[in-house]
Amino acid sequence: MAQFSANPTRFDPYKNFKFRVFWEGSTAPVAGISKVGGLKRSTEVVEHREGGDPSSSRKSPGRTKYEAITLERGVTHDTEFERWANKVWNYGSGLGVEVSLKDFRRNVLIELYNEAGQLALRYKIYRCWVSEYQALPDLDANANAVAIQHIKLENEGWERDYEVGEPTEPSFTEPEP
């Protein structure tokens, strides 16, 4: 059986370098994202045993937690990372208004594209908020690197968008002489 139903000749999995990130309510991707941390969840194991059972125990699922996701991008004049981080804690804004409880959470979409630039996968991440914000990296006059800023997003779960189906990839044809 083929791994790819719409593309039975495709053997390779999708690459990790073509992706976009969208904030809730925005139709434009977040500018300059160069790295997205992995989506990871883990479920605690609850062990129990009945009184008459031998020394072995039974296992069942317990609480599930979702790991934080990091987003990285080059430092620019776009202030969206900082504005969102300031909704969680805005130093110097005055007593009682340091946190914006109304809108500090956002849903986020992460889209993965195939080599032809077609949407292949989409994940929805729910109720994200910024738990860590790095405005500037270590600065080094002897380095030759891009200044990267990052945010760490806590979230309350994610799911794959199954409405995004496998794309039918275009085939390359030789031009006629």
User: What Rg is obtained from the alpha carbons, in whole angstroms?
Assistant: 22 Å
Helix fraction by DSSP (H/I, runs of at least 4): under 10%
The average pLDDT score comes to 87
What order do the helices and strands follow?
EEEEEHEEEE
Q: What's the domain count? A: 1
Task: Provide structural commentary.
By secondary structure, the chain is mainly beta. It has a single domain, classed as Roll (Pnp Oxidase, Chain A). The chain has one helix and nine strands; from the N terminus they run E-E-E-E-E-H-E-E-E-E. The protein has one helix at residues 80-88; strands at 19-23, 33-36, 41-48, 58-66, 69-74, 106-113, 119-134, 148-154, 158-160. The strands form two sheets. Strands 1, 2, 5, 6, 7, 8 and 9 form a seven-stranded antiparallel sheet that branches. The chain has a two-stranded antiparallel ribbon with strand order 3-4. It starts with 18 loop residues before the first strand and ends in a 17-residue tail after the last strand.
Quick overview:
This protein is mainly β.
Note the main attributes of this structure.
single chain, 177 residues, mainly beta, Pnp Oxidase, Chain A, 7-stranded antiparallel β-sheet, 5% helix, flat
List the topology elements.
Blueprint: E1 19-23, E2 33-36, E3 41-48, E4 58-66, E5 69-74, H1 80-88, E6 106-113, E7 119-134, E8 148-154, E9 158-160
Antiparallel strand pairs: 1-6, 2-5, 3-4, 5-8, 6-7, 7-8, 7-9
